[in-house]
Amino acid sequence: MTKSRSKNLFAILFALSACEFSSPDLPLCGNGVIEQGEICDDGEKNSDNWGSAPRCNSSCSAIAPHCGDGILDSETEYCEHGELNDACYACNDDCSFCAEGSEYIESMVSIGGYSLYIACAGLGTPTTIMEAGLNNNHIDWFNIWPSVAQHTRVCIYDRAGTGQSENGPAPRTSEMIAEDLHALLQVANVSPPYLLVGHSLGGMHIRIYARMYPDQVYGMVLVDPTHEDIKSQLEEEMSPDDWTILQSVPPDNTENVDIEACYAQARASRHFGSRPLSVLTATGIPTYCPGDLNCVSSEGMATLIRVKTEKHAELAEMSTNNRHVLLDDSRHFVQTDRPDAIIKETLDVLNAARNGNDL
Question: Do both 281 and 303 map to the same domain?
């Protein structure tokens, strides 16, 4: 996805004018004023106003109607349930208001030799940091972060070599990724404490961050996380045929991550004290047919889900204040199948971290 496309997505998610306009005679698109159903091409607006509509710094473009008849305001409004449609990345439902004074930022931040992309919205602490899975980027959280930002500060970002961020030293490990994130948050003035949310291999990265910077992390949500020892157990318990099929197509690794090194680092990151920790396990059974040839048997997939569930239960036990949630209607990409579950667990962990409650 190009940067301009991402800008437009953010403009719709977090930018521009109020849900409804009262002035009936606004100038047409291109005359420097945001009308109902229009967005600024660069996603930015200046401080001048004409009637009730802020002006674009540049030209504006027409888009499909969304959020009823209005558009989202970067300082006060989000989608009611954080849901987007497929036509224009706009709300499926009505607008709602968040905390007054919420600040939205989006920038490229140099951390020494290369720059990383970051966007933040909302108010409150702990600040929630969302970490995508292997090769993925901030877009993974578009169904999640607007709803969480109604309750606290939220930041999404792209690791080096993903999304809009520049390449960094390679091959990469979880410790390198944690160091990058730490530097990014410092330079971007995103202060701790943090609540970390990580999907898939991103769950491993945030575990390493919590081990390296324990005083900064007040809670954690692991979304169908990768476990460092699952492969060896699956090899023991799956039939040779199923194991061969499962391993026949190696994971896409355009991010150039040394996964075995990440596994070794994660084995030293299995303690989270009494801080709130939620682990979500997707138990919906997909069909795995690499190359549209042979498929892993139903027995093999059942074994995979069972072993994954067991390993996730072990991860939950890293904290004495934990919850393990099974999602039988979700496959691995929970952000798509059950965004509501991620939102709920994130807010529950947030409240537990704030109030010292048990999950």
Answer: yes
pTM: 0.73
- Report CA dihedral (18, 19, 20, 21) to the nearest 10 degrees: 20
Residue 169: per-residue pLDDT? 95
Domain coverage including residue 288 = 105-355
Domain end among 97, 128, 150 = 97
Q: Please name the residue ranges forming H helices in the chain.
A: 3-14, 145-148, 174-187, 201-212, 230-237, 240-247, 259-266, 298-316, 334-337, 339-355
Distance CA 55, CA 75 (A): 15
Same domain, 322 and 181: yes
Average pLDDT of 132-155? 91
322-328 average pLDDT score: 97
**Residue 146: its pLDDT value, please?**
85
How does the average pLDDT of the chain come out, rounded? Answer: 77
Specify whether 292 is located in the same domain as 165.
Answer: yes
> Where would I find the H helices in 89-212?
145-148, 174-187, 201-212
Is residue 155 classed as helix, strand or coil in its secondary structure?
A: strand
Number of domains present in the structure of the chain:
2
